Amino acid sequence: MDSNKTGQSFSSASHIHLEMRAQCAYLRVARVAVAQVVNHLGMAEKVGDTIVLAVEEALTNVIRHSYDGPCEKPIIIEINTIRCDDDGEQEALEILIRDFGKQVDPETIKGRDLDEFKPGGLGVHIIKSVMDECQYTQASDTGMQLRLIKYLAPSKKDKNKPESSDCHAKE
Amino acid sequence: MLNPHDIIKNVRNEGSAVVLELAGEIDMQCSTELRGEIMAILQEKPSALVVNMSQVTFMDSSGLATLVEALQWSRRNGGTFRLSGLQENVRNVFEISRLESFFEIYDSEAEAMAQ
């Protein structure tokens, strides 16, 4: 078990599974759950706030685009801490968001041009800005899965690099 | 469950300006109702609308979109639209979206009203 600065224990194999209906009223429940996890991991408050925001944007996009609005269909959120590099030293927070709605080509999921001042279309940009990695995939049967990664500490390979985000789509 | 109207804490006239005080969390659930409230105020064409957000603890891009729309409407109709008292995590949404420079944002309602 690993200890964090709050004194709580959090296993590197920790696994949290949440299932919510695609209703706006449950967005806050998901936010609170994610906030609790990042707090337990001892992440900086500002970083934690942005992860909560990214998850919120992802869930909102599922309700709005995958399901064409609030409905009774499920959204599944899985939260893990993982080792994500070859030598097993880079620990990361992994968040998987699975829906059962429309399938789209992951390559078409892009943020809009920020030079335009207009409402809407900012969710994907926010997600990609906030997370270290994000990957949309088509699920084998129906719907999409979004995999979000946030490194818990700078990786060795990134320590000498300027801050960047790496988001890509995969079919 | 959260009542969307809970985010509207107070609406008051200050001379020819209107101050809208918000509180709580602005997300997809309440942004439509918020849009309706703001647009109803703007239809009355106040000289300025100041949105006091000092008690807003969370806002996502749906809330941001509502504020963008309100600013656009104000500009088209010759009014002034100002925001005040943004908490750090709320202000961060503007920064991430690179929209901060489009808005008049003040630390306090008093500063926003003094302009």
* N-end to C-end Cα span of chain B: 38 Å
Largest sheet composition of chain B: 5 strands, mixed
| Greatest interface (CB-CB under 8 A), with counts per chain | A-B, 26 and 25 residues
Oligomeric state of the chains present here: heterodimer
What is the tally of beta strands of chain B? 5
CATH-scheme architecture of chain A: 2-Layer Sandwich
Can you tell me the residue ranges of chain A where pLDDT is under 50 for at least 5 consecutive residues? 1-9, 161-166
Rg of chain A, nearest Å: 16 Å
The CATH superfamily of chain A bears the name Histidine kinase-like ATPase, C-terminal domain
SS summary, helix count of chain A: 3
CA radius of gyration of chain B is: 13 Å
Largest sheet of chain A: 6 strands, mixed
pLDDT < 50 runs, ≥5 residues of chain B:
none
**CATH architectural grouping of chain B:** 2-Layer Sandwich
Give the N-terminus to C-terminus distance of chain A in angstroms.
35 Å
Q: How does the helix and strand content of chain B classify structurally?
A: alpha/beta
CATH H-level homologous superfamily name of chain B: STAS domain
Please state the average pLDDT score of chain B.
Answer: 93
Percent helix among the residues of chain A?
25-40%
The percentage of residues in β strands of chain A lies in 25-35%
Structural class of chain A: alpha+beta
Task: Characterise the protein shown here.
The complex is a heterodimer of chains A (171) and B (115). Chain A has 171 residues and is of the alpha+beta class. Chain A is built from 3 helices and 8 strands; from the N terminus they run E-E-E-H-H-E-E-H-E-E-E. Chain A has helices at residues 27-40, 45-66, 123-130; strands at residues 2-3, 9-10, 15-21, 74-83, 91-99, 133-138, 144-151, 166-169. In chain A, strand 1 (2-3) and strand 2 (9-10) form a beta hairpin. In chain A, helix 1 (27-40) packs antiparallel against helix 2 and helix 2 packs antiparallel against helix 3 (123-130). Chain A starts with a strand and ends with a strand. Residues 1-9 and 161-166 of chain A have low confidence and may be disordered. Chain B has one domain: STAS domain (Transcription Regulator spoIIAA, 2-Layer Sandwich). Helices cover 41% and strands 32% of the residues of chain B. Chain B has helices at 28-43, 61-76, 88-96, 109-114; strands at residues 8-14, 17-26, 48-59, 80-84, 104-106. A 5-stranded mixed sheet of chain B has the order 1-2-3-4-5. In chain B, a hairpin with a 2-residue loop joins strand 1 (8-14) and strand 2. The mean pLDDT of chain B is 93. The A-B interface holds A 24-25, 27-28, 31, 46, 49-50, 52-53, 56-57, 60, 63-64, 114, 117-120, 122-123, 125-126, 129-130 and B 1-2, 25, 27-29, 58, 60-62, 64-66, 68-69, 72, 88-89, 92-93, 96-99, 102.
